[in-house]
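Case study.
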Amino acid sequence: MRSHPFRTLTLRTLGLVAGVLLLLVTLTGSIKWGLTQVGWQTLLNAFQTPEPTQVELVILNTRLPRALIALCVGASLAMAGALMQALTRNPLASPGIFGINAGAAFAVVAAAAFFSVASFQAYTWVAFAGAAISGLIVYGLGSAGRTGLTPLKLTLAGAAMTAFFSTLTQGVLVTDETTLEEVLFWLSGSIVGRSLQSLTTVLPFFIAAWALTFALSRPVTTLLMGENVARGLGQRTGWVKFLSALCVMLLAGGAVAVAGPIGMVGLVVPHIARFLVGNDYRWLLPYCALLGGSFLLLADIGARYLIMPGGPVAELLAGTAARVLSDEVPVGIITALIGVPFFITIARRSVSE
Amino acid sequence: MKRKITIRIRPLHLSLLMDVRPLVWLALLTLISGAVFVISVGIGEMYIPPGDVIAALTGQGSPADIMVINSLRLPRVLTALLVGMALAVAGAILQGVVRNPLASPDVIGITGGASVGAVACLTLLTGIGSQWVSVAALAGGALTTFLIYLLAWKKGVSPFRLILIGIGVNAAAVGLTSLLLIISPIHTTSQAMVWLTGSVYASSWETVWRTAAQVAVFLPLTLLSSRHLNAQELGESLATGLGSRVQLHRLLLVLYSVALAGIAVAAAGPIGFVGLMAPHIARMLTGPSQGQLLPVAAVTGALLVMVADLTARTAFSPLDLPAGLFTAVLGAPFLIVLLLKSERHV
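After joint prediction, the assembly is written out as follows.
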């Protein structure tokens, strides 16, 4: 057993409190910082005045929905990743790596292009279906054969399905140039310009999935001791696995419906949480939720500043032929770039062990 | 009884052991490829019967036919052919080195890196000649592979680590590509998008000559090292026991694979799954010995891409779809079957 910093109950509870604080700080920061300057006084006023000014409107209509979406999506992706890592006994498991995000994204793009689906409600269901189908395919492929689920097999299957779905998505976009500009940003994983309504559509599913995930934390911890042990202790492992998979589908599909395929959150955050509290899912899952929310909020703040007009990168780009389309980078790109070093470290370790 | 043909050229360290069966397959596949080539050149907005195509190719057809074929059809079909060969051989090398039937340049991030290079060139330096796009793609592919190799190094490179790290690096490459797409103006974006799906749409004679020259360098080089590839496939200790300098040849072979993949990506964008499928089909036909596998894989790859491109531009006419779409549609079921049957290998 590797030792981790938070071993006693007191420390773990304190850590949880610190996590909540971190989440609140990043949430406030996400509302306050950005292209439009906001003072503390304005920030407080925005939630109180009956007749908001322009800046206050920015806060209420743009910043707040965005921050809340980042929070929910980050928490959901992190929890989905943690569940997948337990289910597949594979430290590299996450919705992004295993092609679940790509499948959901393809489903949404195809529905928009071929069946002119436009309502957000419909997108959500389509995303769930896409997540479920690609998840099933990858799991089925990875578990085929006598050797069962080796990490390598599952990861390869996931990478191949990701390649497959993203080629199809690109194919759809090539034939349908009008939606390209609109969808491109979403496809890289973005939470810009989403209304609160898009979140409220998915929120019931999220809440149900969160509740179910927390309820599953004890059986999943048991399952981690090995399937035979869990069965010997009287657990109906089939049900636990099925319900966990259902949670993963709801969490990842919902996240894609709101924010597009955001990668690496589901990989990175569970590992940070595991480093802090170990592999006890009763503690790991709440930590994942808190840290996942904070992680995506932070990445989103970074996404605002990376190519902000007047910033160093924007100046650099001004010298080239590139005309910057927007003031921001989709947050999915930031998380991907942060996540890859993590992935590589874990890959190096898991192969040598 | 199997008859074998041995080709041994001592000064080149070349030694190929050929069965008759692979040679028959090679001839058969070449014939089919030739037929597809002629048909592919003939089909399009203006249909030219195969007889006239052959006449035009030998310089005897009507001037109109010759014009259409020379300026429009031929470069495209030739590019498809060359790209297919390069991708197939790149995949065959990787599968041998990594000893995993699922490895291919697109899965482990080589084409991803090449894409970053090319898209950077397309979006940041608009108006630059197409030869630089190919240089950028090659550089991107080489740099990425170097990075993967470096990161996978831990007292030598284990094939498993190479794959996993490659998948990770590929994720970063995808991120960078979308970043570049987003900071570029929309008309370059859709141009880059077509390219990213893998298309031989805009091939010119210039592309053909450049690609042909590059392929003509690296294919023979690969064939010359086929015996080292055979050794690699036996695994680390057996290969060492045979007297092969495992790490050195692993590096060289990976370099050839990168070069071939980069050449293909530069010419046509990342056409997926060809590097995965073609070597497998070839292995089913010829057995595992690389000396006979590589040529058959090359022809199979050429056939695959030509058929994919033919389908892509005729099936949904007047829409001219990227060939990569159809190789992906073929490749995914292929992969499923492969994974289901791969108990012994993976």
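Observations recorded in class. The mean pLDDT of chain B is 82. Chain B has one domain: 4-69+85-341. We will return to this complex in the next lecture.
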